[in-house]
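Researcher: I'm preparing a figure for a lab meeting and need a structural model of a single chain. I don't have an experimental structure, so a prediction will have to do for now. The sequence is pasted below. Please return the structure as tokens so I can convert it later.
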Amino acid sequence: MKNNAPELTKEWFAGADLYQGDKLVRKGGRPKSEHPKKAVNIRLDADLLDHFRASGPGWQSRINDTLRRIAGLR
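Model: Understood. Here is the structure written out token by token.
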């Protein structure tokens, strides 16, 4: 019989959600970033937004990368 279950290591448990009964106590997932991004509202031309969205998932990161490059931050 093939076992498809993940190996339950300390790292696996460290990344898991922690519940006490039905109450979520700690959300697992990726580690916190040293430089988290901030949510902002910005008005962009529709054709510009369509251009980046058409390239698929990650379009917001590509806008961020483009702005960093233009600002000389890369």
